[in-house]
Design brief:
This protein is of the alpha+beta class. It has 15 helices and 16 strands. A hairpin with a 5-residue loop joins strand 15 and strand 16. The longest helix has 20 residues. The model has no long low-confidence stretch (mean pLDDT 95). Bound molecules: histidyl-adenosine monophosphate.
């Protein structure tokens, strides 16, 4: 007897059964439509990336979470944990030919060997929208606006989510005013980003280990109480332009948004559900140094990553588990083999008219046909018996209302 294999996928990886796929398609459709509506061009790359591009030693999380291996030629290879380094590499490779600012979008499968919690898997799809080469806050407006549009297209309303916005530059200036020198800021950002995820005492210890004096640690925590973005020109402009664009109500200033990735330099943002039940829905910001850091020419950039896991949990909880299936098209069945030709011809005629048809594969009793049809994805059902073939027409039932109309059978 062969050893019985587990039917579970590898830990943290996901199977998509049809009901899961219906959700994934609904979410991806909104991503694609919002990207297209805002003029972002689709791009893609292989999920396997050079390890050296991804390995950063700045103490941030994603670097530690990489799945990596050596291929048969001893090349150090990794599964990408995010798309941004790959985007930077692709842009750097053609930086002379591409015309800037460029607006690119993709839905990238990403892998992170991280601790599994609610909303965090070891594999997820992440919609990315990025603008490279635009200095003005218009880039943030277009990127955040596209993500808000995607949430609306999925069926969520303004009251379901908020985009929490801050600026690392602004936070840096506040830290500097409190006496913490700029060379310590990167480390302070990474430590303060852990707030809410680990106790403040541990964060304090991290900061002291990094060389901050007790007074500086207190000052860093005090800055986290700032409630107003007054005096930060880029945030003032972002809020004003978002008003014109129609999504200012979706934004809130929140100094505690710092982001765990070290490459952000300016405005940063993270979206949460309004009740605070789920992990971040999307996150992003401005990153000025990544192109330069990987060896390209320096270029400013703004972008975000929007995962499929959290938003699907949120959609299910707000709209219902079954809300993803949109009933459409026809189920067509037949009573005996004698009506099989008529059913095939009827289905073919409907399909030529652009309708989706789920044609029964064998003769069925009417009860069984209608019970399966009403559980399936069709909006209408037509069941062909001997009398229908004789009469040359079939009754078509609207499965939602029970209403019946007649349609001619193809001859
Ligand atoms: P991130 O905050 O690491 O940013 O991830 C962005 C989003 O991806 C999260 O808000 C979440 O929706 C989703 N996500 C991340 N990790 C997981 C996971 N393990 N399971 C499920 N969902 C996850 C970035 O990755 C940046 N590269 C985004 C970016 C693009 N910044 C500029 N351009």
């Amino acid at each position: 007897m062969p050893e019985k294999l587990s039917f579970e996928p590898p830990r943290g990886m996901r199977d998509f059964y049809p009901a899961d796929m219906a959700w994934r398609n609904r979410v991806f459709d909104a991503f694609r439509a919002a990207g297209e509506a805002a003029g972002f061009q689709p791009y893609d790359a292989c999920v396997v990336e050079n390890y050296d591009l991804l390995a950063r030693k700045s103490g941030e999380e994603v670097g530690d979470q990489i799945y990596h291996f050596f291929d048969k030629s001893e090349r150090h290879i990794a599964l990408r944990p995010e798309m941004t380094p790959t985007l930077a590499r692709m842009v750097a490779q053609r930086q002379k030919e591409l015309s800037f600012p460029l607006k690119w979008t993709t839905i990238a499968q990403c892998f992170r060997y991280e601790r599994m919690t609610k909303g965090r898997k070891r594999e997820h799809y992440q919609w990315n929208v990025d603008i490279i080469g635009e200095e003005s806050v218009m880039a943030e407006v277009e990127v955040v606006g596209a993500a808000v549009d995607a949430l609306r297209r999925m069926g969520l309303s303004q009251s379901d989510f908020k985009v929490h916005v801050s600026s690392r530059r602004f936070l840096g200036s506040l830290l500097e005013k409190s006496g913490i020198p700029p060379e310590r800021h990167a480390q302070v950002f990474l430590a303060l980003d852990k707030r809410g995820k680990m106790p403040d005492e541990e964060i304090g210890a991290m900061l002291r280990d990094g060389g901050l004096s007790p007074a500086e640690v207190d000052a860093a925590f005090a800055v986290m109480d700032v409630k107003s973005y007054e005096g930060c020109a880029e945030l003032e402009e972002l809020f004003a332009l978002a008003r014109t664009a129609g999504f200012a109500d979706a934004l809130v200033f929140d100094i505690s948004v710092i982001r765990g990735l070290s490459y952000y330099t300016g405005i940063v943002f993270e979206c949460f559900d309004s009740k605070g039940e789920f992990r971040a829905i999307f996150g992003g910001g401005r990153y000025d140094n990544l192109l330069g850091a990987i060896g390209g020419e320096q270029a400013t950039a703004v972008g975000l990553g929007f995962g499929d896991v959290v938003v699907t949990e949120l959609l299910k909880s707000r709209l219902g588990e079954d809300a993803a299936v949109e009933k459409k098209g026809y189920a067509v069945g037949f009573m005996f083999d004698g009506q099989r030709d008529a059913a095939i011809a009827f289905a073919a005629a409907l399909r030529r008219r652009g309708q989706c048809v789920n044609l029964s594969l064998s003769a069925q009793k009417p009860k069984k046909f209608f019970s399966r049809a009403s559980q399936g994805g069709a909006a209408f059902a037509a069941f062909i018996g001997p009398d229908d073939v004789e009469a040359g027409e079939v009754r078509v039932k609207d499965l939602a209302t029970g209403e019946e109309t007649k349609e001619a059978l193809a001859r």
